[in-house]
Amino acid sequence: MDMNEIKEIFFQECEEGLAELETGLLALNDGDDDPETVNAVFRAVHSIKGGAGAFALDDLVSFAHVFETTLDCVRSKQLEATRDVVKVLLKSADVLADLTNAARDGGSVDPARCQALVADLEALANGEIPASDDAVADEPAAEAESAPADEPAPEAQAEGEDDFKPIPVQFDDLEEKGDDFEPVPFSFDDFGTDQAPSANIFRIVFKPKPDLYLKGNETLLLLRELDQLGTLDVACDWSELPAIDELDPEGAYLTWDATLTTSEDEDAVRSVFEFAEWDCELTIAAAGEEAETAEDAAPQPDVEPETDESQPDTEQEDVSASKEEEQAEPVEKLELPNVIDLQQAAGANRQQAAESAAAPKAQATASASGAGSTIRVELGRIDRLINLVGELVINQAMLAQSVTESATSGSSAVTMGLEDLQQLTREIQDSVMAIRAQPVKPIFQRMSRTVREAAEMVGKNVRLVTEGEATEVDKTVIDKLSEPLTHMIRNAVDHGLESPQDREAAGKPAEGIVKLSAKHRSGRIVLEIADDGAGINREKVRQKAIDRGLISAEATLSDEEIDNMIFHPGFSTAEQLSDISGRGVGMDVVKRSIQALGGRVGITSTPGKGSVFTMSLPLTLAVLDGMVVSVGEQTLVVPLTSIIETLKPETEHIHGFGASGQLISIRDSFKPLIDVGQILNFSNMPTDPLAGVALLVDSEDGGQSALLVDAIQGQRQVVIKSLEANYANVPGIAAATILGDGQVALIVDVEAVVSASRSGALKSEMSLAAVG
Amino acid sequence: MSDESQTGTGQLKLAENLDLTAVTPLHKSLLSARGSALVIDASEVERIGGQSVQLLLSASKSWADDGVPFEIGNASDNFLSALALLGVGPDSLHVKEQTQ
């Protein structure tokens, strides 16, 4: 592992820290006054500072330092976390994120912006209200003025400056370990917080077993080694020591309780006991730490199961109860609640996790201790695994097909074995997909910054409310979600919400609300962006559409159709192109990028109440449930999600329309009947509707159409193979897949086929004849 | 324990090296000295392990229970520093520091 890799880990940690920082600040903003929230926020900045110091990222260190000083004032209650204060803190978090990005990817952050915030932060730390008016909302926040303590914090700050010395990390010895080196998540948390510079305090409770001495280990030497790490304070407990005539001279009756103040980390302390760990009861706890992670406790070796002893702890008695009979001598002295037996740490963690699930406020602590149960894996490796599983699915389908073709009896052992294999394959596929599934939380968090910045730019008061952050979706989808979501959020702030004055005039609170929510619905993820603004001004939209020649002046459009006009290319209702939405990107681009993900977007709007944009996306871009159909001599796959129903057309349902168009009447309404073979240029002859099958599909504008195909072959899950990546973009076709017989089948882009049926043929420069 | 010499007045001289191998002989010597006042000479001690200290502590406690005087005298620096490192206060063992 070289320096760059270690640095990369640091930046990953930074990202997590920044996310935690933002979560905490937003919680403070919402009135959360849990000291643990403030602590979590402080820790996040502190860790970033510590790590940045190790890598000599001076800009980052100095900004983080000022930020931290102010947070320390909040932590020590010298500064009350009012909305105005949190506003400055949130901005600082943004700058910290920018500085981190700049440190990683190069580039720089506007020094003036940094300077201004540094001044604001310092002012806050000094008990003043920042001078820059944009940091302060309309209300002058009387509470903020009276809140700061009488003794301002300059000393704290000066002290802090002296206090902080970045500790360079020694990487030299890492090299020696070569390939054995496992990346250990950095924790800079312990870098000199309240103690003397970089002092860690560990409480070590150590009770040797007779084996320890038998194996040539010696308590004295262990303690001496500890002593060399720093300042050691040892107390020996001989309360269990029997009288001399009852004593086994080679027994072990003493317990040592040591407090070590050291600049070393816990690993260094633990390594002292490396060879003695199994022959003693050992507890190492950093002062103030609640519990150790399970990973810190080395696994119990199989060879010595009898060494599994436990020490009773008030919190842990239930866990240790089952092991009580093996427990020779309980150590009464452990009264500190923060000491938990290592061997029980796993259980403790579970317990802690369960508790924190019940109390969401404790999440910060829970995630801190739960961090050890995850591993970082390069995305490329997972992608490779997913590809391989895709191949496995295809291969299994091919095998199944050839067995079916050659086997005469359906119940042969081979067929049954194959069924098991099929089930197993499906399970493997689901599990692998679950690996890549991630909660939408990070992207939602990024949106809160988008809202802040957009609101500031247009001078509105906006609050982002998020819901369903834990909803999981494939990483590839998440990565592509950011752009359309950012645009829609900006759009909601810029166009959706009214100005504070207008809102007040309309009897609404001056602060507008943008609500971002995510949920799973029938195998898709549905994202909603709702604002409580004025809703779509349909008159204006309609007029604009007429002005631009998109519709004729006489056209009668439903409300829904007018609302959907905003997705039309080049449509913008903002009277003046503003900075944030006038970037040449219209809602049409948003719609297209969502469609490219196999998604749909729609809008509902209530005048005076606001608008809701709804995006529905597949959970994964790797597999798809599809209807396999025949068109001409081709086999196509139609995504199941777009099919509403299938039907066999009858004579009385088919009606001619115009020169060559056809309509099908379904339950008293007419839907266009689209001959897929013709649209895709598979055949010159129109398909006979009576001989084919119609698939009723949803289209984006809320309308429905019927796709006419020759026959339905079946329904199955297919592995999506990109045509763009493997061949070229083909209009009307979304992707391809490989079927059980090894044939390539094309996956129909339903939306493109439907719109092609309206506007004429698909762009002919790449006709399907060229592909097929 | 070869180096230790027991006198009629209950005296015991600790060996130079009180590691694992020295514990059992020391235990025996202490057991046989039980019941009368004991002065232990720790002047020669170069090395002492946890189990020997444990043994001496048990002896000190047993002697105290018996109401019989127990004292460790002439403690060498190494003996004292080992006790300090092990968190055993000299008083617990009735240690008198080396006079020389």
Automatic annotation (TrEMBL), chain A:
Residues with Phosphohistidine modification: 46
E.C. numbers: 2.7.13.3
Stretches with biased composition (Basic and acidic residues): 320-335
All copies of domain CheW-like, residue ranges: 623-759
Annotated Low complexity bias: 143-157, 343-372
Compositional bias annotation for Acidic residues: 303-318
InterPro entries the UniProt entry points to: Bact_Chemotaxis_CheA, CheA-like_dim, CheA-like_homodim_sf, CheW-like_dom_sf, CheW-lke_dom, HATPase_C_sf, HATPase_dom, His_kinase_dom
Reaction catalysed by this enzyme: ATP + protein L-histidine = ADP + protein N-phospho-L-histidine
Domain Histidine kinase: 418-621
Enzyme class, broadest EC rank: transferase
Keyword Kinase: yes
Pfam families given in the database record: CheW (PF01584), H-kinase_dim (PF02895), HATPase_c (PF02518), Hpt (PF01627)
Residue span of region Disordered: 134-165, 290-372
Keyword annotations from UniProtKB, A to Z: ATP-binding, Chemotaxis, Kinase, Nucleotide-binding, Phosphoprotein, Transferase, Two-component regulatory system
Domain HPt: from-to ranges: 1-103
Protein name from the UniProt record: Chemotaxis protein CheA
Biological classification of the source: Bacteria, Pseudomonadati, Pseudomonadota, Alphaproteobacteria, Hyphomicrobiales
Automatic annotation (TrEMBL), chain B:
InterPro entries for the chain: MlaB-like_STAS, STAS_dom, STAS_dom_sf
Domain STAS: from-to ranges: 1-100
Protein name (record): STAS domain-containing protein
Lineage: Bacteria, Pseudomonadati, Pseudomonadota, Alphaproteobacteria, Hyphomicrobiales
A Pfam family assignment: STAS_2
Top-rank taxon, per record: Bacteria
